[in-house]
């Protein structure tokens, strides 16, 4: 029963309904360390109001969570972010942003389940965090692309140098992005879809 006394349960908003033309859907995970921009990316690119599970950071996390480079951050994802975007009229991507703090990484296994691919967001001020992130994806066999989020105060390096530093093979796409901009975040997702298509064409995508 709703607040007006009716037995009718309200349905989704018109703008949130899945288009009738949709024929296929894919689950994509957005991963990375704490404060790299995962929640921002899901929010900027989602065509529906994103679901977030952000909670206020407290003193209990001091000395436990590594928030280097994110000292002004006051909230953190504790479960996941969720959004949706149409790539074409037929293809819909469901986006799942993972929690960045290491103590919540146990939730990643469930979020990786059924994922077709992933975006690894990287902060050049904390490249070392990315190794554990990519290692977990490789263990699960989830293909990924790397997107370097362009923070204003972060050092800039040639992508070739970053590829070497991250020990990426030549076939893994790496690009710069600004997750605050919808077009930039969409470009990252399109790059991932092209990469997954190329893997499928060569029989490398299982």
From TrEMBL:
<dbReference type="InterPro" id="IPR004130">
    <property type="entry name" value="Gpn"/>
</dbReference>
<dbReference type="InterPro" id="IPR052705">
    <property type="entry name" value="Gliding_Motility_GTPase"/>
</dbReference>
<comment type="similarity">
    <text>Belongs to the GPN-loop GTPase family.</text>
</comment>
<dbReference type="InterPro" id="IPR027417">
    <property type="entry name" value="P-loop_NTPase"/>
</dbReference>
<dbReference type="Pfam" id="PF03029">
    <property type="entry name" value="ATP_bind_1"/>
</dbReference>
<keyword id="KW-0342">GTP-binding</keyword>
<keyword id="KW-0547">Nucleotide-binding</keyword>
<keyword id="KW-0378">Hydrolase</keyword>
<protein>
    <submittedName>
        <fullName>ATP/GTP-binding protein</fullName>
    </submittedName>
</protein>
């Amino acid at each position: 029963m709703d607040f007006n006394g009716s037995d009718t349960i309200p349905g989704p908003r018109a703008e949130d309904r899945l288009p009738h033309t949709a024929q296929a859907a894919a689950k994509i995970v957005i991963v990375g360390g704490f404060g790299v921009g995962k929640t921002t990316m899901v929010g900027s690119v989602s065509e529906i109001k994103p679901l977030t599970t952000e909670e206020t950071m407290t003193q209990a996390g001091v000395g436990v969570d590594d928030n280097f480079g994110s000292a002004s951050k006051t909230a953190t994802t504790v479960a996941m972010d969720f959004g949706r975007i149409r790539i074409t009229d037929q293809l819909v991507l469901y986006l799942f942003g993972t929690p960045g703090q290491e103590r919540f990484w146990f939730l990643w296994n469930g979020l990786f389940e059924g994922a077709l691919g992933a975006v690894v967001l990287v902060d050049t001020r904390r490249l070392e965090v990315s190794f554990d992130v990519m290692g977990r994806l490789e263990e699960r066999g989830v293909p990924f692309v790397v997107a370097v989020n362009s923070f204003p105060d972060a050092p800039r390096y040639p992508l070739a140098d970053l590829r070497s530093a991250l020990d990426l093979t030549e076939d893994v796409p790496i690009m710069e992005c600004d997750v605050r901009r919808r077009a930039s975040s969409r470009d990252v997702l399109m790059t991932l879809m092209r990469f997954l298509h190329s893997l499928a064409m060569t029989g490398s995508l299982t």
